[in-house]
Amino acid sequence: MNDARREELAAGLAETESRIRDACRAAGRDRSEITLIAVTKTYPASDVRLLAGLGVTDVGENRDQEAAAKAAECAGLGLTWHFIGQLQTNKVRSVVAYADLVHSVDRPRLVDALSREAVKAGREIGCLIQVSLDTAPPDSGGVAERGGVVPAAVPDLATAIARADNLRLRGVMAVAPLGEEPGPAFARLARTARAVQEEHPGADVISAGMSGDLDEAIANGATHLRVGTALLGRRKPFVR
Ligand SMILES: *Cc1c(COP(=O)(O)O)cnc(C)c1O
Hints:
TIM Barrel, binds pyridoxal-5'-phosphate, eight-stranded parallel sheet, globular
């Protein structure tokens, strides 16, 4: 059972690695510039363990309850944990205990909560600003359909993170908008990332690209890919 699953995961990983290498070659980039995050949501801790055995170093989760249990079960594997889902302030204490990076920072209140809990926990948390790539964003400057802040709101949020105790601004994250070519959207993200990096030179992470669009993400400067389906298989529909 475990052996069969290991084979499946090894095949998914080999296929994904080959796509990454091809995309890097096409873009004139080096594979070492890219971090592959295995998005293990809905899959058990045993899969995380198998992936770690196959050389995966980074895992991503989007729901605190599930992630906290899995991270506890997988303590000692030396993995880097990425929280990639929408984050409510009442979950921040829990997330700060296991997450190394939070990809979904999208409002000042969340920055305050993350900083406060990171200080209490004595941890440093890497933060990515989630940017909305929707072409018709809500003009409120609020959170868009697929999450994230409009690019115009990014500089203030970046400053807030950079000033906050125990938080480190690492860069930006986005999900390609629905019903649009991912390439141009990721190009807009790259521009936002460059603007952030001009003010904050250490913020060099661009988290973009999932199973369906990792090639376009690599072509547009992504440094971190969040890949679930291509590694682990199609997820069962999530029932709340
Ligand atoms: C689930 C998820 C992914 C992975 O998506 P796949 O299409 O399965 O690769 C990436 N990013 C975020 C924010 C997710 O929630």
